Amino acid sequence: MAEEIAQNEQKNPYLPFGDRQDAPFYGKDILSVKQFTRQDLEYIFGVAHEMREMVQRVGSFDLLKGKILANLFYEPSTRTSSSFTSAMERLGGSLIPINEVHYSSVAKGESLPDTVRTLECYADVIVLRHPEVGASELAARYANKPIINAGDGIGEHPTQALLDLFTIYEELGDPDGLVITMLGDLKYGRTVHSLARLLSLYDVQINYVSPDILKIPEGIFAEVEEKGVPQTENSTLEPVLQDTDVLYVTRVQKERFEDPSDYDSVKSAFIITSDSLSIAKDKMIILHPLPRVGEISMEVDDDPRAAYFRQMEYGLYVRMALLAMVLGKS
Amino acid sequence: MAEEIAQNEQKNPYLPFGDRQDAPFYGKDILSVKQFTRQDLEYIFGVAHEMREMVQRVGSFDLLKGKILANLFYEPSTRTSSSFTSAMERLGGSLIPINEVHYSSVAKGESLPDTVRTLECYADVIVLRHPEVGASELAARYANKPIINAGDGIGEHPTQALLDLFTIYEELGDPDGLVITMLGDLKYGRTVHSLARLLSLYDVQINYVSPDILKIPEGIFAEVEEKGVPQTENSTLEPVLQDTDVLYVTRVQKERFEDPSDYDSVKSAFIITSDSLSIAKDKMIILHPLPRVGEISMEVDDDPRAAYFRQMEYGLYVRMALLAMVLGKS
Amino acid sequence: MAEEIAQNEQKNPYLPFGDRQDAPFYGKDILSVKQFTRQDLEYIFGVAHEMREMVQRVGSFDLLKGKILANLFYEPSTRTSSSFTSAMERLGGSLIPINEVHYSSVAKGESLPDTVRTLECYADVIVLRHPEVGASELAARYANKPIINAGDGIGEHPTQALLDLFTIYEELGDPDGLVITMLGDLKYGRTVHSLARLLSLYDVQINYVSPDILKIPEGIFAEVEEKGVPQTENSTLEPVLQDTDVLYVTRVQKERFEDPSDYDSVKSAFIITSDSLSIAKDKMIILHPLPRVGEISMEVDDDPRAAYFRQMEYGLYVRMALLAMVLGKS
After folding, report:
1. Same domain, C53 and C144
2. What is the pTM of this model?
3. Residue A97 shares a structural domain with residue A240
4. Hey, what's the torsion of the CAs at C291, C292, C293, C296, to 10 degrees?
5. Exposed site from A84, A144, C193, C281, fewest CB < 10 Å?
6. Which residues of chain A are within 8 Å of residue B170 when distances are taken between CB atoms?
7. Same-domain pairing of C72 and C202
8. Do both B18 and B94 map to the same domain?
9. Nearest CB to B100 within list C76, C293, C316
10. Same domain assignment for residues B107 and B208
């Protein structure tokens, strides 16, 4: 691992120290991937990389000691809330966990603006998960303290996209020149849309592989095309796999198909096994936002190219970086 | 804000340092507003004011480092539990959050005395929210460690009343000479009853404004009268508003009315808008225990007299003070 | 209390310092009572005893500062999760509390191996409570970080058995020579089975007292017999009570009986009152895993022999010891 870090250090894909002295995200909200330039990303990932090194060396440190994060989850997400909890704690900060909003003031009809204005009396930063598109923006409009969007319905989940991209940086270095293949449900997959948007800031190629009814939305495709990124659409993985540097797998849900037999006829094409990887490069990586339910078979876990659990860990470093940044401590 | 604090400092409404050296609340329970003398209140608010200054200067400090608060909530209350959580964390302490009592040992039939005697093996102080009147007293009878009542049914919610009064102190100074007007549901409003009791220790005037069916209970009225506090009862706000220094708003719930049309006929009289405030003093404040659901329109939030979000913040300082006091650290 | 500790120190029932310098549990899982030798137990209890002295002297200390415990509870258990929470916090560590697994990723069908491999990206140790026998072993097979079994269905609950035995050590010293009587539901009582197994490492006598349909399982009886521990089976307590040093009480649930009148005819024999204790030794102790629902009457609580609340406290020290040990800090 230390060696791997050293390698990446040589590549130095991040914004160098001298260029990021002015804490550009201090007091800012993190609402959408659209708010970031490539320079922003290199800044964030530079901080996240330092977080990684610090955690691996000392586990935790007191950068945010005395700071409080309110984890305001209007719908459950153990993975995301645990990740932010750990991020805050590894930086020495504390938590106000609010996981059962439906039982509480909100059930009494309180508006989101009132809830966040109350919470910011108690906390220094609010992480918000909400089922409605635009909830984070609404919250940010009323809150004086930073809001971090941890998913608002079918809208955005920017920290997920950032951790996906940071995984690529840490595993393969600067994304320029890479071929990224996205597989599965590209229509409803919020993470796929956000990652495609972020990748459009780079000199990459994107392949989409999906059942016909789950293709990438035209809007996203057009947005990425406008940035000059070459894209291909495919119904099977095999033709594009051997050139792929990053295989981003998402689940194809049976319920999306009107006729279950349509699902059965395509599903095997969207399950990754050791066999299906035999034609893939030696130095490529497989990502997955998790949880998975069978779309990557467990035998693949031992393949060094299976990066999805490391991806979870990179998520911790990205969230540590974001918390430190918005609180002015990066 | 600093200036405002300075002003209040000049007034010095709190018990001076020399007079509060003996930690009168160390190891004590906080069960009812009835347990406090005016001197007690000045002591508590003196500590709370110091907490405010410390938080505003340094955010958090390690006064209660190593101490553990068990937040035992038999019914949900995000606002109150978040406030205590923040109070403990800003003092460097830790939490055992217990929010789902109905799923747990209690569901197995365990008695409250057994639950608190178990919890006090793990924690240094217990904050208890319970749907039954008298639950806190029962708990305190069995526990060796301090119990803080965070609301027991339609009974008491002493820390809410304390924060309401502390808000008056911090915003307007010593309450003597002030006119306090309470508006809305005065019959069922637990916070109104407790605040009226506390105010009866001062040289104030209290106006009650409510629909006829939601008048202040005779018992409370008599109790306050006995202390020599002048009180008036009213069915509309206008006549008393212009003399009011503190307007305490609570919600009128439609469900309280047998005939919904009765509600519709009175409700507009109990909604505060910028218009309705045009005749109010320049230096008065509007309080609300929150959550609100329409009884103060959002346009009022920007009025400097709207103190209800600051009130939430004062609640933090009062709870910090109480925790420090019962743990012998004030 | 200090005196009592001093007494126990004289007995010195624990493994002496010189013999336990090599951190034998560092990085290990705690899955079953079957994994412990008598020497292991003396090691663990020696550390737990030091934890007790430290807590009683200073309350908390920063042995695990910066470490994170994920409390992964697939079924609720306020008592056990609060105990681990307190243990981690009294050692200066932090928590990721996961109490509502059924609402979250797992509801989306994620496997236990995936969940623990994700969580170990965020935490340093995982405490797992799960309704299925063998869940902890499965988790431990996939996790790189230590798993502590906090109960897996009708399987094991090793930390409960350890705290039961530690209570005996702290209250009465080395168990050799003691008579332990187990009362109540011995068929389904997971804690009874585990404690009997642990006790079979000592030179004790065990009496079982239960209704006929709730007798100790033959398998457990045979296992203990093989170790040469004398055992007796009884249908009433009286004949064995006067020789008893440790009376371990568990609840007899009415639902276990096909015919409710059968329950009514036996229940009084399984309720401990001050009266029933009149023939017991002066220096004996009554244990109960709690919660209790009537099987020990509250009047007994004031009897110094009633050790069940102290038992809860010993549980804290045992869990502190285990956390410190598996994290290499004992």
Report:
1. yes
2. 0.93
3. no
4. -170
5. A144
6. none
7. no
8. yes
9. C76
10. no
Between residues 59 and 88 of chain B, which touch chain C (CB distance below 8 Å)?
Answer: 65-68, 70
Q: Report the amino acid identity of residue A64.
A: L
> Side by side, which strands form the sheet with C147-152?
C94-98, C68-73, C125-130, C147-152
Return the structure tokens found at B265. 């006929």
A304 touches chain C (CB under 8 A): no
Q: Kindly determine whether residue A119 and residue B82, on different chains, have CB atoms separated by under 8 Å.
A: yes
| Residue B223 burial by Cβ neighbours in a 10 Å radius (0-12, 13-18, 19+) | middle
Note whether B70 contacts C82, CB cutoff 8 Å. Answer: yes
C225 and C316 belong to one structural domain: no
- My answer on whether B187 and B113 are in the same domain is no
Structural domain total, chain C: 2
CB contact under 8 A, B291 and A108: yes
Contact C298 B121 (CB under 8 A): no
Whole-angstrom CA distances from A207 to A185, A221, A253, B35 are 13, 11, 20, 71
The pLDDT tens digits along chain B (330 residues) read 444 444 444 457 887 655 555 678 999 999 999 999 999 999 999 999 999 999 999 999 999 999 999 999 998 888 999 999 999 999 999 999 998 665 555 556 789 999 999 999 999 999 999 999 999 999 999 999 999 999 998 888 999 999 999 999 999 999 999 999 999 999 988 899 999 999 999 999 999 999 999 999 999 999 999 999 999 999 999 999 999 999 999 988 877 888 888 888 888 789 999 999 999 999 999 999 999 988 999 999 999 999 999 999 999 999 999 999 999 987
Q: Identify whether residues A302 and A177 lie together within a single domain.
A: yes
B54 close contact with A: CB closer than 8 A:
no
Domain residues for the domain of B112 are: 2-157+315-326
